[in-house]
Amino acid sequence: MNRPERTASSVPWPHNGHEPMEQGNPVQVDTGSTVAMLRAEIRKTIDSNCGESNFRGAMFCALCRPGFALHPQAPCRAGILTLEVHRAISRPLNTAAMQAAVAVELHMQAAYLFDNVADRDKGPSDDLSPSEELAVAIGLLSCGQSALYEAAFASGRHGPGLRSLLRWAGDCAVHCSTGQFLDAYLEKRTMATTEEALMMTSLKAGSLGRFAAGLGASMATDDSDTVNLSGEFGYNLFTYLQLVDDLRDACKAHDLQGDLMQHKKTLPVVFFHNSLRGSNAEVVCSIIPPEESREAKADAWRRFESSGSRVFGAIAAEAFLNRAKSNLAGIRSRVGTVENLERIVSSFEITPQEVVNS
Amino acid sequence: MEIVEFEKAFRAATANSMMRPALATLGQCGQLSTQLPPEFEAARNSLASRSVEPARENSLLRAVAAQWS
To answer: Long-range pairs for A261-264 at CB < 8 Å and ≥24 separation?
Structure first.
């Protein structure tokens, strides 16, 4: 990323009654209050960008579902990563950083909605049809785009610097969409390679992490190396998280449900299916319908568990975690303390044994 | 990402029926990476960009043991 001319006109944040964080504060991560402030800004962004009450209501309803940003227990990981990368580099949070976090988080919520539609088995929520669900996703993306413009404006960007930032953000968003498309495309195929599975995962999740961390950094510094390193950190961290999620979702022993039964093209499932080529692959190489007997599902589960697919996936995930840690060491060498980011990584970190035995 | 090379090496290492008990034993003992069978070590190193911390290495080995013991 090229970050030429830029004026440091960061507006103190927050501007809606909360006390701004002081310059030079120790990097104490009070994630609870930060998430609450992020949620408040997300509400404000949607309120100010969507005048039509029914559509606005549908957006808020969608965002209040479990796992979504306005649900009380949602971690808002992407937005928090944006804020904490910004805080690690320049300490005080400001309007630019918060709007950037809103932009990132709304992109992530739109991606979740797309996944809901893609995972047809889950069925629509809130009585929304798949078409309505996609319309809400587009609405959230548009609100996110508006927040991105606010962030760019608040950070004082103009001219080539503004163009460069928006172009980079657009690239990140397109890469995320490419991952979503590849996911849907691979669903139609009987087989996939581990390379395709990993590419899909990295594009979908990694690109969003790059967007989150890179945007947080670009709101804090003009140094393109620090911004790029932060982007790589986010890319590797979010790819790691997705690979861990894929291991957890592969197949659950208690109900024998999961990606394995739906023949999703996640890394561990693809590795497993490819192991069966040439053997009696027909047993498990197709979607196992929900009405299939428990014995058939249990057989597929046993084969999967003894195949080494979880270990394979855990080692791949571990490699991305190592890379994220290496990126973080690089950021530390540039900006000094990154305690808050180290704490975030620790909170995401899961031992391979936990993952494999999950 | 050299996932294809890693996959080949991993499959070669784990297809060796003689190696599975060895991996399981190493895992149960919590041995360090220097004592891993060379094929498995090569597989892991082909993917990781830097060495794994000893505590996580042990955890990984125990995970291997859980699969093949």
So the answer is: A261/A287, A261/A288, A261/A290, A261/A297, A261/A300, A262/A121, A262/A287, A262/A288, A263/A287, A263/A288, A264/A187
A191 contacts chain B (CB < 8 A): no
On whether any CB of chain B is under 8 Å from the CB of A237, the answer is: no
pLDDT tens per residue across span A147-169: 999 999 999 988 999 999 999 99
Select the residue of A193, A198, A353 nearest B62 (Cβ to Cβ): A353
pLDDT in tens, A39-60: 999 999 999 999 999 999 999 9
Closest CB to B56: pick one of A310, A326, A352.
Answer: A352
Assigned architecture for domain A31-356 = Orthogonal Bundle (1.10)
Mutation site, B14, B57, B58, B60, interface A, largest A CB count within 10 A: B60
- Number of structural domains, chain B? 1
Threshold 0.90, pTM exceeds = no
Its domain, for residue B58, covers: 3-68
